[in-house]
Amino acid sequence: MTVICDHLNLGVKTGLPYIWHSKASNPFVNLQKEFKGLFWQEQIIPFFQALTFPKECNTVEKCYLQLSKLVKEKLSSIDPYFLKLGDAMATWIEAWEEFNPAAAQTESS
């Protein structure tokens, strides 16, 4: 989200989470779940570092839809998960606009 906020000159708050999770977990199970991510980050980090949006992307929704297209286009070669992710991102924006029509109308004006 920071790449979208940077593009739109919006501020982003980062830091420690407001809710602290202290449940003990099994590090071996965690490693097994996160194993693919160790390799994926070799391509994902440069993808986000090089990401730019066209000037037409002047709302968060438009940027997020553009990002969903780029995720599918550029990251699907890593794993089919990214095709599903791109589709889910677009679906989220469609649902947002359906349930928030006044906000979508205001931003597209």
Description:
The chain is an all-alpha fold and 109 residues long. It is 67% helix and 0% strand. The chain is built from five helices and no strands. It has helices at 2-7, 27-50, 60-75, 81-99, 101-108. Helix 3 packs antiparallel against helix 4 and helix 4 packs across helix 5 (101-108). The longest helix is centred in the middle third of the chain and has 24 residues, at 27-50. It is globular, with a radius of gyration of 17 Å. The two termini are 23 Å apart.
What is the succession of H and E elements? HHHHH
Task: Report mean pLDDT, rounded to a whole number.
Answer: 89
**How many β-strand runs?**
0
User: So how many helices?
Assistant: 5
List keywords for this structure.
109 residues, mainly alpha, 67% helix
What is the gist of this entry?
The chain is mainly α.
Question: What is the fold's blueprint, element by element?
Answer:
Blueprint: H1 2-7, H2 27-50, H3 60-75, H4 81-99, H5 101-108
Helix pairs in contact: 3-4, 4-5
